[in-house]
Amino acid sequence: MEYVESGFRAVAGFLSSLYDLKEDVVYDKAIAILKTFGRGKVFDNLLESLNIFDDDMVRLLIYIYRTHRPVIHAYEDVVPVIELLRLRGVKTGLITNGMAIVQQNKVTALGIAGLFDVIIYTDAFGAEYWKPSPVPFKMAVKTLRCPAVKSIYVGDDPSKDFLAPNALGMKTVQIIRSPGIHKPTPEGQGYAAQTTISSLSEYFSVAHENK
C-alpha cells in the first residue's frame, strides 16, 4: 500500500501543478476511489470526479505512476535479517514480478540491492516468465550455485509464489504479517507454502529445520 500511496502522491502533485487543484484534495480522492472501487480504473474515475477526463491524460497518469521514484520503506526486520544471513555466509536472492522499471525503482528506493547476490526481474524476460513460472527460480539457484533442495524461498502471495519452488524441491515459507493484505491460497496441489511465519526474524527457526 505504501507504494500505491507514493504513486498517488506523484499523480496528485502533477495534476495540482497542471490545474488549479490542491494536491491533498486530489490525493484523498484517489485513495477514496481505490477503497471504493478497487484498482481497476482509479485514474479514469479520478479524472471524471475532477471534471477533467481525457483518455490521453489517463495514459499519462499511468506512466507517471509507474515511473515515479517511490517513497517507500522496508519492514524493520528485513535489512537486519538479510545482513545477518550474509554474515553467516548464506547466499541471498530476490525474484520480483511486475514491470521491470517499477520493480527496479522500488529496489532503488528501498536501498536493498546490495543485500542480494542476485536479483531477477522476471519482466525483463517477458510476461510469460513472471512467477509462478519455474524459470526465474531455476535461474536463481543456478546463478547462486545452490541446489533447490538446499534453498528456502520466502514469499507472501500463494497465487504465484510457491507453486514452482514447491515443485523444484525448495523449502517454501509464507510470511503473513499483521496487519497486512493477505491473498487466499488457490485450490489445487502445490500452491500452499510448507510453513508460515509472521515476521522475517522467524526465518532462522525455519532454516534450522531445513538443515
What does this structure look like?
- By secondary structure, the chain is mostly helical.
- The chain folds into two domains: 2-67, DNA polymerase, domain 1; 78-209, Rossmann fold, CATH 3.40.50.
- The chain is built from nine helices and five strands.
- It has a three-stranded parallel beta sheet, with helices on one face. The protein has a two-stranded parallel ribbon with strand order 1-2.
- The longest helix has 17 residues, at 2-18.
- The mean pLDDT is 93.
Offer a quick outline of the entry.
With 211 residues, the protein is mainly alpha-helical. The protein has 2 domains: 2-67, DNA polymerase, domain 1; 78-209, Rossmann fold, CATH 3.40.50.
What is the secondary structure topology, with strand pairs?
Blueprint: H1 2-18, H2 23-37, H3 42-49, H4 55-67, H5 78-87, E1 93-96, H6 100-110, E2 118-121, H7 135-144, E3 152-155, H8 163-168, E4 171-175, E5 195-197, H9 203-209
Parallel strand pairs: 1-2, 3-4, 4-5
Protein name: HAD family hydrolase
GO molecular function, one term: metal ion binding
Organism: uncultured Nitrospirae bacterium MY2-1F
